[in-house]
């Protein structure tokens, strides 16, 4: 996993509530057996005017000029500003894969769906919860100022605006540690191999029917 | 000892290791695996030279990509076929307790197959790379969806890195009116608390109306806990749970059965257990539910109307309603029972079990599909459900009514196979999500119960099943 430390990133505002994972990456792209290459199909049904299918040359497809991701001023954005309950719906990790592949590293919203939120951390993507009024303010500033960037410092757990306002955010120690180091979580867990085995023996003795 | 909720009991009995910040390693008993969210996980294991920690925890089937007709022709879409064949190869290489491949008589939607095989048992932790894993909570199991990185983590370590959720009790008091199903209860709850109302919580469903529900009804309800934002839904174990499990292929056998039942009978919230949030509904007030928008919380009952965005003061909500009505092609204030439908879909992990098909067949019996309805798909949840329905003659009832009787799979719930809506088509669907494009790009989904879907098919528009 890619480590995350600090970022100075251009901000793209996606002003919709309840953006679901079917919208983030439509189901036809879930047929892939790879974990990369989903970026061009991020928000496919909103981003293009035609119907997308796997294997198409996306560079030749007609773009929807009214969709925010296609505005020239947001090209290369690394911070996605969103509304409440972002990432609701399915557990497909293809959603954070697509966001990461497109170049996003941070998503800021008043709330996230649980499974999506958790999936982000496994992919070097940092989802940040901020109060609705802070998110409102960031939307206003971003829309009013072309080239609007935010500085995100994971170690300090802060977001800083160009005018110098600083907002703190929460993250569990475990997630912070894994993101800062870009750590392989399976490797970390296997350090507890003996504990897992001990638990398993006890569990087997208590509920033998769980073990075929 | 302090009083514990059911969720507290299931959680604490699976904690392997706990860190100072409350992050734990949670032991996983059952891992359900399907073709869409597993290939990258198996690939990760291969690259790292790892094996499955416990082969006998894995139960697998192919469901999302499989066609529901012309099985003799195989899977025509080459990328769908590759994904299913990749699962075949991975199970062959890594092993599993049981695998129900494409065309096997035990094949089915993973959340239908697990319970019917007895692969889902009370007291278990159950995970699957699919958000509707919450279904299995109907058995007093702690069950939730996970992403593909976590699928790989469970395969390699038999644990998940997890943080405990808060406890919510949703209590439905009193008796449900005749004809009101688990699906209507689920939609009524989502209408009340919203699609993010359960975020951060495990929801236990309790109260007289829940205890009165069949296991199928409880599965429909827990299935949609995720649509209320909660990763897990739970119902306490009772005699219905135990009767359902008894005799299934992977249920405990003779000498272990009594010990298992004794343990399972402790799987309920203690008197006085603390819930962080409590929501109550009066069962008598729940009417047949129909969604009108592009989120499951955009729901009303059959006698309601499409809302008017002009009446909404919150600008974000107003924008959501306007966008939903534009997408759905609906006018504000239209009575729900005047909305015509083009397609009807009866199936999905929410509503494709035998009881669901019986309810739909009871409405279809002796009636015909309305002329304006182009197609009615009935897709059983598994090969075993299909066989039982055919034994009961339900297939003949559907076919006589002009409905199509299909092979099992996820089908038009998410339209990964060939079953999908065309742009602008309006569907009465027993599935779980009415998101934009969910059933096909530009398709318009209204979520309803199986009986309500069958009623829409014969009437040509939404209609109160109690008035038929």
TrEMBL record, chain A:
Domain of life of the native organism: Bacteria
Pfam families (alphabetical): Aconitase_C (PF00694)
Entry keywords, A to Z: Amino-acid biosynthesis, Branched-chain amino acid biosynthesis, Leucine biosynthesis, Lyase
Enzyme Commission number, as recorded: 4.2.1.33
Pathway: Amino-acid biosynthesis; L-leucine biosynthesis; L-leucine from 3-methyl-2-oxobutanoate: step 2/4
Keyword Acetylation: no
Catalytic activity field: (2R,3S)-3-isopropylmalate = (2S)-2-isopropylmalate
Domain spans labelled Aconitase A/isopropylmalate dehydratase small subunit swivel: 1-132
Top EC class, one word: lyase
Record's function text: Catalyzes the isomerization between 2-isopropylmalate and 3-isopropylmalate, via the formation of 2-isopropylmaleate.
Family affiliation: Belongs to the LeuD family. LeuD type 1 subfamily.
Assembly and binders: Heterodimer of LeuC and LeuD.
Official protein name in the record: 3-isopropylmalate dehydratase small subunit
Species of the source: Vogesella alkaliphila
Encoding gene, per UniProt annotation: leuD
UniProtKB/TrEMBL annotation, chain B:
Binding site for [4Fe-4S] cluster: 349, 410, 413
Domain Aconitase/3-isopropylmalate dehydratase large subunit alpha/beta/alpha: 8-460
Statement: the UniProt record of this protein carries the keyword Metal-binding: yes
Top-rank taxon, per record: Bacteria
Pathway membership: Amino-acid biosynthesis; L-leucine biosynthesis; L-leucine from 3-methyl-2-oxobutanoate: step 2/4
InterPro entries assigned: 3-IsopropMal_deHydase_lsu, Acnase/IPM_dHydase_lsu_aba_1/3, Acoase/IPM_deHydtase_lsu_aba, Aconitase_4Fe-4S_BS, Aconitase_4Fe-4S_dom, IPM_dehydratase_rel_enz, IPMI_cat
Top EC group: lyase
Lyase among keywords: yes
Keyword terms of this UniProt record: 4Fe-4S, Amino-acid biosynthesis, Branched-chain amino acid biosynthesis, Iron, Iron-sulfur, Leucine biosynthesis, Lyase, Metal-binding
Reactions that this protein is recorded to catalyse: (2R,3S)-3-isopropylmalate = (2S)-2-isopropylmalate
Record-linked SUPFAM superfamilies: Aconitase iron-sulfur domain (SSF53732)
Cofactor(s), by name: [4Fe-4S] cluster
Cofactor note: Binds 1 [4Fe-4S] cluster per subunit.
Sequence similarity: Belongs to the aconitase/IPM isomerase family. LeuC type 1 subfamily.
Biological function: Catalyzes the isomerization between 2-isopropylmalate and 3-isopropylmalate, via the formation of 2-isopropylmaleate.
Description of how the protein assembles with itself and partners: Heterodimer of LeuC and LeuD.
Protein name (database record): 3-isopropylmalate dehydratase large subunit
The organism of origin for this protein: Vogesella alkaliphila
Origin organism lineage: Bacteria, Pseudomonadati, Pseudomonadota, Betaproteobacteria, Neisseriales
Gene designation: leuC
């Amino acid at each position: 996993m890619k480590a995350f430390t600090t970022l100075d990133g251009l901000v793209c505002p996606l002003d919709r509530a309840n953006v679901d994972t079917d919208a983030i990456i439509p189901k036809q792209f879930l047929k892939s057996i790879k974990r990369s290459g989903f970026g061009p199909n991020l928000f496919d049904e909103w981003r293009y005017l035609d119907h997308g299918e796997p294997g198409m040359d996306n560079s030749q497809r007609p773009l929807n000029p009214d969709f925010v991701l296609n505005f020239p001023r947001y090209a290369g954005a690394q911070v996605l500003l969103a509304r409440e309950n972002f990432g609701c719906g399915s557990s497909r990790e293809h959603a954070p894969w697509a966001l990461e592949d497109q170049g996003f590293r941070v998503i800021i919203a008043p709330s996230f769906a649980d499974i999506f939120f958790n999936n982000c951390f496994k992919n070097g993507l940092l989802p940040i919860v901020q109060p609705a009024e802070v998110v409102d303010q960031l939307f206003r500033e971003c829309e009013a100022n072309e080239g609007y960037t935010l500085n995100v410092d994971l170690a300090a757990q802060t977001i800083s605006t160009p005018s110098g306002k600083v907002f703190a955010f929460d993250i569990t120690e475990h997630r912070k540690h894994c993101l800062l180091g870009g750590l392989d979580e399976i490797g970390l867990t296997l350090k507890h191999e003996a504990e897992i085995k001990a638990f398993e023996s006890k569990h087997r003795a208590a509920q033998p029917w769980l073990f075929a | 000892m302090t009083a514990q909720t059911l969720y507290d009991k299931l959680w604490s009995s699976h904690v392997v290791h706990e860190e100072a910040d409350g992050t734990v390693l949670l032991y996983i008993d059952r891992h359900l695996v399907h073709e869409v969210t597993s290939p990258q996980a198996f690939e990760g294991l291969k690259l790292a030279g790892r094996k499955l920690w416990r082969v006998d925890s894995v139960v697998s089937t192919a469901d999302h990509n499989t066609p529901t007709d012309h099985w003799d022709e195989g899977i025509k879409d080459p990328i769908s076929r590759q994904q299913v064949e990749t699962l075949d190869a991975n199970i062959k290489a890594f092993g599993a307790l049981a695998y129900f491949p494409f065309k096997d008589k035990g094949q089915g939607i993973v959340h239908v197959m697990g319970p019917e095989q007895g692969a889902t048992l009370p007291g278990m932790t159950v995970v699957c790379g699919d958000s509707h894993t919450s279904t299995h909570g109907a058995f007093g199991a702690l069950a939730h969806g996970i992403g593909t990185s976590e699928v790989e983590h469970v395969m390699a370590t038999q644990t998940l890195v997890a943080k405990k959720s808060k406890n919510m009790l949703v209590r439905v008091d009193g008796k449900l009116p005749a004809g009101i199903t688990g699906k209507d209860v689920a939609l009524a709850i989502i209408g009340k608390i919203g699609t993010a109302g359960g975020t951060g919580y495990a929801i236990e469903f309790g109260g007289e109306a829940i205890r009165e529900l069949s296991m199928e009804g409880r599965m429909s309800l827990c299935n949609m806990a995720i649509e209320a934002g909660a990763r897990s839904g739970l119902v306490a174990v009772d005699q219905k749970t135990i009767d359902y499990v008894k005799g299934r292929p992977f249920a405990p056998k003779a000498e272990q059965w009594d010990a298992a039942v004794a343990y399972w009978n402790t799987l309920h919230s203690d008197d006085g257990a603390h819930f962080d949030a409590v929501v109550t509904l009066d069962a008598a007030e729940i009417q047949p539910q129909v969604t009108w928008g592009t989120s499951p919380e955009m729901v009303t009952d059959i006698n309601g109307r499409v809302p008017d965005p002009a009446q909404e003061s919150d600008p974000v909500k107003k924008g959501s309603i306007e966008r939903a009505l534009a997408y759905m092609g609906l006018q504000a204030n239209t009575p729900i029972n005047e909305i015509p439908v083009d397609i009807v879909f009866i199936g999905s992990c929410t509503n494709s079990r035998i009881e669901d098909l019986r309810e739909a067949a009871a409405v279809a019996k002796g009636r015909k599909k309305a002329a304006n309805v182009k197609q009615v798909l009935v897709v059983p949840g598994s090969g075993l459900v299909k066989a039982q329905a055919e034994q009961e003659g339900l297939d003949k009832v559907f076919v006589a009514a002009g409905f199509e009787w299909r092979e099992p799979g996820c089908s038009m719930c998410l339209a990964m196979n060939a079953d999908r809506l065309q742009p602008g088509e309006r569907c009465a669907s027993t599935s779980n999500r009415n998101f934009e494009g969910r059933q096909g790009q530009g398709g318009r989904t209204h979520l309803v119960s199986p009986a309500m879907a069958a009623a829409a098919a014969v009437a040509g528009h939404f209609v109160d099943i109690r008035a038929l």
